[in-house]
Amino acid sequence: MRQLAAVQEQFKLFTRLGIKVVAASADSEEMVRKTISDEGYTFPVGFGVSPADTTAIGAVRGDRNDEAIIQPAEFILRPGGEVAASLYASTQLGRMSPREVVAFVKDRL
Fold it and tell me: DSSP letter string over 25-51?
């Protein structure tokens, strides 16, 4: 969830630039609501991402500590919903930082 904390830090800038942020998790509603409350996220966070949802977006399932997880998948969508950029990761390394998202949007959208 460190990545979401970085997004929250830049949320006012995202809003000023017209960037909407939506996150989703495979965690239960209860767990997601607790995380939102504990971390103070002000953007929407969905819950209950299923294996079918994972397949639909092309994300990769994995294992961590002998528990099935969904690896991160990130998308920048154009205003009409077309995918302008996507990233699929198996670690924190190489994921989109909020600064990179801002630069991409300013330069390309």
Answer: -SS-HHHHHHHHHHHT--S-EE----H
